[in-house]
Amino acid sequence: VELHQAVAKDYDKLHEAMGKAGFSRVIESGDGKRYHLPTAEYRIESNDTLEEVHDAAQAAANSTGKANSVVCCQYVSARWAGLAQVPAKRQA
User: 60: Cβ–Cβ under 8 A, 6 or more apart, which residues?
Assistant: First the structure.
């Protein structure tokens, strides 16, 4: 998702709206480690169609009031480098 002519607070709105729609900004590796996705990239595990997922992402982007671009795709696997690892939660 890209917001056109946006500032940081616009992306804060986007992150909140995407979260409410079920999207995450984190991806998990095969060994269970979790990594932060790049800014304004999201993932969702859903039984919805690609069109339904796109419509949900588009609605979230539109809720910011900014012109935007949205690309959705389905994938079986992913490979990445350079993503920051999400710190493991401490056990109490």
Answer: 1, 14, 17, 18, 20, 21, 23
Tell me the whole-structure pTM to 2 decimals: 0.89
Q: Which two tokens stand for residue 89?
A: 């939660």
pLDDT tens column, 30-85: 999 999 999 999 999 999 999 999 999 999 999 999 999 999 999 889 999 999 99
Q: What is the DSSP letter of 32?
A: S
Amino acid at 54: H
* Consecutive H or E run containing 41: none
**CA–CA gap between residue 92 and residue 77 (Å, rounded):** 34
